[in-house]
Amino acid sequence: MRWTDNVATREECWQRLSVGVRERTADRLGTLIEWWAKESDGGISAVALGTHALIVVSPTVNSAGLPASKLLTVNLDEQSFRTVRFRDTSPRGVATTGRVAAGPATAPGQHSGERPGDRPSSASSLSTRLDPGMTGLLGLLPARAQQLLQDPFLDSGDELRFDCYTYLTGVVRSLSGATIHTWYYLTDHRTLTFCAGVGHDYHDGIGAASWELTCWRVNVVPRQATNTR
User: Which of 34, 127, 173, 199 has a 20 to 30 A CA-CA distance from 164?
Assistant: First the structure.
């Protein structure tokens, strides 16, 4: 993995969005669950998961050629939320190969006797629908988190929308390693999965010694049109 210095925190990036964009995002979200914001080419991008919607903010330009933000709203069925919180202390290296794990389709919180990789045809199909950057960053996660994120889409032919954001704090080459902070989402506009958490004692080429993660799965209701400000 190649890591770059992040010069602005997510809070600082969020404040650089216009008041109107921040207010419209808050109005649509419901109760905020998780979020990230980062510097992107041309501006600030952000993703916020709430009880009513996932909001994706992307930099763009308006009709006058001035910087603007585009909002994509993925409406969610609040009653269908399922949440799994877990700590993973699997041996290092299990999830650092960049391979996208393909486990059987199971509900969050359930265990399965099959191992990641037991459904190669489905895994191969899903991998072709993700870009290399997403596949590589999914590979940082422990196998269970990869499975929870991907299970609903293994047998779906619908187009996927996805994104992730990961950054490090601390020093990778120190004895205690770095701390990795990470967020992911995938959706086929029927189901949405989201994962966020922290990996401890991270070393390049080895991975994190332990993870504290939360994964969400929720049904999607018909999407709204995008808006530009």
Answer: 173
